[in-house]
Fold:
Amino acid sequence: MQVFRMDDLDAERAANKGAYLRFLNERTMSVGLYALDQGASDPQNPHKQDEVYVVVSGRAYLTVGDETTTVGRGSVVYVPAGMPHRFHHISEDLRVLVVFSPPES
Structure:
């Protein structure tokens, strides 16, 4: 078993001066913490892996393909591999767990 604490992960991510921290990398999946502050822009491009977002805190819009929805604490979103997507209109600092399957490369 491995146990992670959100506060510790967010502190490590910030210390590395990045928006993303991959903290678990296994044979069939990887997991990271993605952070975007209020008003930030999301520079990500489509990924080669399926992914699941679990919003831990914050509020924003998320556009996947041509669909847009609001997300906030407790939202869970599946994004198929290769699908264009991005968070935008971030109204509260956003912290999102990201699960990639297969693992991101």
